[in-house]
Amino acid sequence: MAHAHGYAVKDAQSPLVPFQFERREPGPHDVCIDILYCGICHSDLHQARDDWSNSLYPMVPGHEIVGRVTAVGAHVKKYKVGDLAGVGCMVGSCRHCSACAADLEQYCEEGATWTYNGTERNSDQLTFGGYSDHIVVEEHFVVKVPENLDLKAVAPLLCAGITTYSPLRYVKAGPGQKIGVIGLGGLGHMGVKFAKAMGAHVVMITTSPDKGKDAKRLGADEILVSRDPTDMHKHANSFDFLLNTIPVGHDVNPYLGLLKLDGKMGMVGVLTPIDPVIGGNLIFGRKSLFGSGIGGMAETQEMLDFCGQHNIVADVEMVSIKDVNQAWHRMEKNDVRYRFVIDMATLG
Amino acid sequence: MAHAHGYAVKDAQSPLVPFQFERREPGPHDVCIDILYCGICHSDLHQARDDWSNSLYPMVPGHEIVGRVTAVGAHVKKYKVGDLAGVGCMVGSCRHCSACAADLEQYCEEGATWTYNGTERNSDQLTFGGYSDHIVVEEHFVVKVPENLDLKAVAPLLCAGITTYSPLRYVKAGPGQKIGVIGLGGLGHMGVKFAKAMGAHVVMITTSPDKGKDAKRLGADEILVSRDPTDMHKHANSFDFLLNTIPVGHDVNPYLGLLKLDGKMGMVGVLTPIDPVIGGNLIFGRKSLFGSGIGGMAETQEMLDFCGQHNIVADVEMVSIKDVNQAWHRMEKNDVRYRFVIDMATLG
């Protein structure tokens, strides 16, 4: 066992406080990574507060991890000491079910092992995330980080990036398509960048007209203010795909009216109930509503390679580990453009 | 103008009563059809009662029409006097929008012309449906009826048939797929027959265990009683596709739990709001919910040809036009297996 330190919450009311714990020694298939940067995902706050009624304490959050390899097990093939490496939302899966066989480990029939707020695959020991100095992860769940990217801004790609990249690939986003991104936050700002890089005509759909200027800087071709009925009418029945990043229950019916025949809306943000869908809004136009959760390991690597080729990273605001509770408070108020990243050197 | 007679409702409270009206003379592209049989669709009752707040009176319902051609316009190519012919839910569309160009006239961007409770394409004259002695329809919206089928049992194929056939084709139903049909009524019983004929493993999903025996006669391989938690658990995460024929708002979340990874549920019955969908039920497993409305004219013909090849018709109960109000009352109580058809010879 190797001594580790990081920040944890002790219960649903606790702030993040310094926390000492043990990481396993790297086994033959494991990669040991010194964490350089870790993104702050909105789900870190949901999990810390037990909003989804499945929280395990003490909890070391963090699943947007980049760092440098410090040791590898005897059977590790793709990584060597000194390599850059990334770790996202999962660190294990059964590796033999049909989902795993289809490179969709996030939907593992036996349940994926989540990077934190889970238990190790073969024990009841808690998994601890990236708000910490190092992590030990099975090679299959580690991804290579392109050397040409700004490393600190790569961290959010491991969750916010793949969560938006995967559904865009699922609907074969590309030239000739009109794609709307609903909600301009950590997920939405990545959705705009990816949809644009894939060649689509991108419309940022937001309740806040003041976000428009920034959305265009990120790559949006147009802005649609969803509270403006004239604007909504103008874009009615015109979208091939809507990437819906809203993280709380809401009324999707007005957005369904924006979809053209056979149009699809992908939900990536909300785990809780949405307002009642009107059946006729799906039937008239054969419209679809689907959900998508992160992406498999092969697709996560593909996403990072795509980012390397297109020079895509997240827009980040750096934060010291000592200020992480304050960052959470600001994130709660959507006061971040667009992702906080912890500089783990500040752990001292 | 040709004199016609049928049955109509005069307002939302009215019973069906004898009604005299005029049909247009067949134009150069029109087919004139003597109606032999007309199915009674549950939507006839919804429309008569103004349940969807769009009813136009007087209303002659009926959009499951089969009959024999009595006259054709000069430019009609596919039909001649004496042919069997069918007419379904629509009698016109713009013929030039992208939906029409894709043989999806039901989603016409200018709006399809419905067989009844609509207005003629180029006038404000009401369209009158199949509870009548004859109808005049543009050739493009007429389909050929295979000669080998029991004609009276063909009528329901024009709506209940195509409504269930189309989404099964949309999801490429076939061998190796496990398909569930939710709700055993006019739509559901056709869904079972089609899914079976397409080669899928078919599970009838019903709240009523007593419907099981009949579902197996119709072709179901298995019965799943949705009120039985053990049965629901046994089938969890196992369906490729669910055809949901429930015609009123309901909770789809338990059914989403039956879908496997990338599974889809097609909604064909409910135009009104459904209960709140839990976002996580879509996200975990990348599941889809889509709507589907009838089918285009080419697919309606394909469906009838498929029925001819596989000897598929609806299970019907014949009714005299004089007893049509009583039939509506029984349909309201789901007391029909599985579709009433009016023998139009009883119109006298």
Please explain how this structure is put together.
- The structure is a homodimer of 348-residue chains.
- The first copy, chain A, has 348 residues and is of the alpha/beta class.
- Chain A folds into 2 domains: 199 residues, Medium-chain alcohol dehydrogenases, catalytic domain (Quinone Oxidoreductase, Chain A, domain 1); 131 residues, NAD(P)-binding Rossmann-like Domain (Rossmann fold), CATH 3.40.50.
- The first copy, chain A, contains 11 helices and 17 strands.
- In chain A, the strands form 4 sheets. In chain A, strands 3, 4, 5, 8, 9, 16 and 17 form a 7-stranded mixed sheet that branches. The first copy, chain A, has a 6-stranded parallel sheet with strand order 12-11-10-13-14-15, covered by helices on one side.
- In chain A, strand 11, helix 6 and strand 12 form a beta-alpha-beta unit.
- The two termini of chain A are 21 Å apart.
- The model of chain A has no long low-confidence stretch (mean pLDDT 96).
- Chains A and B meet through strand 14, helix 9 and strand 15 of A and strand 14, helix 9 and strand 15 of B.
- Strand 15 of chain A pairs antiparallel with strand 15 of chain B.
